[in-house]
């Protein structure tokens, strides 16, 4: 059974700092890994999807990498802004494409 | 930009009552999903739906739950006899068929069972 863990659970950084969020998964037979952000009381906004044949994806200030052999994905946020404050979730897709396991989330606070 | 919509945004119901949560997936998407998130806990997969039938379901998705695509646009989740522990945020998602399985989530329906 796939387990997905995110470290740290919470992170507070000053505005402008670059930061890395970590996601670990136990089953390397993963098809895709997707990063989301969730604002309090809101739905999930898709940030980046990395397919199993890819090693990284970039969108604006965000860069996500995937290393299936080590069971790790990282989300790099450059030049953080207060608007980046949210909970960031990673989700691993395995076992038939449609099944997904979410991580525990990292709550990010960017201080102005 | 196309988006997944869900109604209602908040549903309050009494224990034992039936509820139907509604979703309108993105129009050209073929795979549909329901997830739930109990307050303070992880998002959990409930069920996936393709070609008018369930493709996968989790252990949570027991006989109390059912899904339906009653017409060409709506996708519903029915809970037959709600329990207190069904109180959660329920998210609908959809994805295109093909190599990209990026899932797009709706804003959620908060279900409160009293």
What does it look like?
The complex is a heterodimer of chains A (about 110) and B (about 110). By secondary structure, chain A is mainly beta. Helices cover about 0% and strands about 60% of the residues of chain A. In chain A, strand 4 (about 30-40) and strand 5 form a beta hairpin. The radius of gyration of chain A is 13 Å and the shape is globular. The N and C termini of chain A lie far apart (about 40 Å). Chain B is an all-beta fold. Chain B has no helices and 11 strands. Chain B has strands at about 5, 10-15, 20-25, 30-35, 45-50, 55, 65-70, 75-80, 90-95, 105, 110-114. In chain B, the strands form 2 sheets. In chain B, strands 2, 4, 5, 6, 9, 10 and 11 form a 7-stranded mixed β-sheet that branches. The model of chain B has no long low-confidence stretch (mean pLDDT about 90). The interface of A and B includes residues 32, 91 and 93 of A.
């Amino acid at each position: 059974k796939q387990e997905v863990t995110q470290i740290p659970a919470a992170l507070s950084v000053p505005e402008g700092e670059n930061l890395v969020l970590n996601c670990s998964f136990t089953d390397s037979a993963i098809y895709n890994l997707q990063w989301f952000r969730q604002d309090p009381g809101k739905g999930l906004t898709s940030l980046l999807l990395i397919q199993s044949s890819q090693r990284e994806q970039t969108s604006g200030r965000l860069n996500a990498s995937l290393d299936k052999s080590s069971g790790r994905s990282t989300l790099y946020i450059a030049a953080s802004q207060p608007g980046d404050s949210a909970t960031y979730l990673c989700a691993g897709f395995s076992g038939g494409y449609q099944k997904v396991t979410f991580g525990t989330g990292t709550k990010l606070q960017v201080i102005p | 930009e196309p988006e997944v919509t869900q109604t209602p945004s908040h549903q309050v119901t009494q224990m034992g009552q039936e509820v139907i949560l509604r979703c309108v997936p993105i129009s050209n998407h073929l795979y549909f999903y329901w997830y739930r998130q109990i307050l303070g806990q992880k998002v959990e997969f409930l069920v996936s739906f393709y070609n008018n039938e369930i493709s996968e379901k989790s252990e949570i998705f027991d006989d109390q739950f059912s899904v339906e695509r009653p017409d060409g646009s709506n996708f519903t989740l029915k809970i037959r006899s709600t329990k207190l522990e069904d109180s959660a945020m329920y998210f609908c998602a959809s994805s295109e068929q093909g190599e990209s399985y990026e899932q797009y989530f709706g804003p959620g329906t908060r279900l409160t069972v009293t």
